[in-house]
Fold this sequence. Notes:
The structure is a homodimer.
Chain A: E1 12-17, H1 22-38, E2 41-46, H2 50-55, H3 62-65, H4 67-84, H5 100-108, H6 114-128, H7 135-145, H8 150-160, H9 164-179, E3 187-190, E4 195-197, H10 202-213
Parallel strand pairs in A: 1-2
Antiparallel strand pairs in A: 1-3, 3-4
Amino acid sequence: MGLDRVVRPPPRLVFWYEFASTYSWLAAERIEAIAAAAGVAVTWRAFLLGPIFAAQGWTTSPFNLFPAKGRNMWRDMERQCALMGLPKAVRPDPFPQNSLLAARVATAMPESLRPKFSRAVYRAQFTEGRPIADRAVLAALLHDIGDGESARAVQDALTAADAPAVKAALRAATAEAQALGIFGAPSFTTASGELFWGNDRMEQAMAWAEREARGAPL
Amino acid sequence: MGLDRVVRPPPRLVFWYEFASTYSWLAAERIEAIAAAAGVAVTWRAFLLGPIFAAQGWTTSPFNLFPAKGRNMWRDMERQCALMGLPKAVRPDPFPQNSLLAARVATAMPESLRPKFSRAVYRAQFTEGRPIADRAVLAALLHDIGDGESARAVQDALTAADAPAVKAALRAATAEAQALGIFGAPSFTTASGELFWGNDRMEQAMAWAEREARGAPL
C-alpha cells in the first residue's frame, strides 16, 4: 500500500469578485459552504470590472445601460435573496458604487480575513444601502469584524490600502482577470485556467477543480 | 368533502425562445421533462430577439459584440452539452443565423408540433451547422418530423409561414415579449407576468408557476 497513492495538491479555485456586483455578493454568501462540501480550497481575489467594461465601451454597469436587463436583475435578486434566506436586497444609490477603496482594502489584508470583510461590505451595501466608497464606512466595518489577534491586521488594512504596492497588486489582479478572459463577476478559474462565469456556475466550477486536481477526465 | 376543493387551472408557463439562441436550444432539450416533473403545462412561443436588441442599439448578438463573453459562451456550451449528454455544439456560420423563417414556421404550425420541430431546427443548426434560414433545410426538417396525421400540418407550415396573419402573429409575439420585459432568450413568464431569464432559471420558473396557480405565497 502507499506506492500507488500520489500526493496531489488539493483542488483549488480562484473566486474573482467585484465589490459593486450584486451576484458577487450572492456568491460570497455561499461559496465557503459549497467549497467545504466539494473539498476545494478557494482563493478570494477582488478585482475591478470598471476597466474591463471600459475596454468594451461601457461607462457604467450593463444593468444601467440596458434597463430591461437591470429590472430583471433587481427582481431576480429579490427572489434569490428569499431563496437563500438573505435580507431583502436594496439598490444602493448610486448603483454601481465605486468599489476601488474596498477592493484595495481587501487586497491589503491577509487572505484569511477577506471572506468576513467582503461579506460585511456586501451586506452594508446591498442590505443597508451604505456607501462603500466612504472611508469611514469601511473603517466601521473593519472595526466590527476585527477581534483578537486579527484586530490589528484588519484595522491596518485601511491604511495599507493607500500603499503603492497594494494599488499595483489590485491593478495586476484586474489585468490578470482580463487575461484569463474574465468579463463579468463573479467568475471562477481553476489551476489550468478553466473559466466559469456567474454565481450559477459555482457548483460546476468546484466539480471541475476537483476533477482537474485528481487528474480525472474533464 | 369536496366543498373545500376548488378547481384551479393547471399551472402554466410560457417558454419564450429564439431560434438563433444557443441557450434556448439547451432549454428546448430539457423543458418537457422538467415541466412534466413539476406538473406545469408549457406554451412554446417563438419570438425574435433582433428587434429587441436593435432597440437597445445592438446590431448583432452580444456574443459577437463582446468577444470575451462570446468565447465564454461557446466554451460553456461545450461543457453544458457534455453534462446534458447532447452532441458537441458547433458554431453555425454565420452566427447568429437569421431565424425569421424558422420562427414564422413555428408560429404557423399547431402548438403541439412545435417542440419536435424546434428541437430539429436547433440540432440542425447547432450540431450540424446547417443554415436554418434556408427554406430547403426547413422543408427537409419538416419532412423528417411529419408522420401520420401530423404530416400534413407539419408540411403545410412552410407555406403558411408566408401568410400575412402568421407574419403578424410573430410580430405580435415579439412585441408581447418586449412588453413583458423580455430582453434575452430563453425566458419564461407565468400567468401573472413573473419573468425569469435564462436556461438556468427554468426550475425556479416552474416552481413559481406551480405556487402561483395554487395560490401559495410567492
